[in-house]
Design brief:
single chain, mainly alpha, DoxX-like protein, transmembrane helix, DoxX, transmembrane, membrane
Length: 99
């Protein structure tokens, strides 16, 4: 059940990246990543998903889960960095002291 939901989420994310390619390119450039990384991440996610579904070797499955966790941690780091930058900008603009 959990793997099914995870699979649907990954397939939806990859499909969304290719359907809304122009918007995703703008977001990647805003975050400072090159646009070709969209294809690399999409391919890696689909390969990792196929490993999880088709392969029964525990060692390879652990590495697939590890890669998904690394990607999630990277996304969390970048989002935090962007949010911090926006808050700092708003503090300077409106002369706020939120600390």
């Amino acid at each position: 059940m959990v793997l099914s939901l995870f699979s649907l989420a990954i397939v939806y994310a990859v499909a969304n990246s290719f359907i809304n390619y122009e918007n995703v390119i703008l977001k990647f450039e805003e975050l400072g990543y090159p646009p070709y990384l969209i294809f690399v991440l999409g391919t890696a996610q689909l390969l990792g998903l196929s490993v999880l579904i088709l392969n029964k070797t525990a060692w390879i499955r652990e590495w697939a889960y590890t890669v998904f966790c690394i990607i999630a941690l990277d996304v969390t780091y970048v989002q935090n960095k962007i949010l911090t930058r926006k808050v700092t900008y708003l503090q300077k603009k409106y002369k706020l002291n939120l600390r």
